[in-house]
Design a protein that fits this description.
mainly alpha, 2 helices, globular
Length: 84
């Protein structure tokens, strides 16, 4: 069976408390992890109606958390936010 193509557009990702210099690394990690999570787990039910906003909630990241790890946590939270 041929996999379907999924296009996800993130217009705005609001991050509070992160240094501005890490934004691109975080964003790339979010995109990469989200692709993987969608491939593995599929589209969350709440996304079926083309939501304009997904509340992902909070993640746990400290000053020593690497931007890539933060991005992965954000992607998983976004996916779970769509499952609510």
């Amino acid at each position: 069976m041929k996999p379907r193509e999924i296009e996800v557009h993130i217009e705005e990702l609001v991050l509070h408390g992160f240094p501005p210099g890490t934004r691109w690394e975080v964003a790339e990690a979010v995109a990469s992890e989200l692709r993987g999570v969608l491939t593995e787990r599929g589209i969350p039910p709440a996304w079926q109606s083309s939501p304009e906003r997904i509340e992902a909630g909070a993640i746990q990241a400290g000053p020593q958390t690497r931007p890539a790890a933060t991005g992965r946590q954000i992607a998983r939270a976004v996916h779970q936010g769509g499952a609510r």
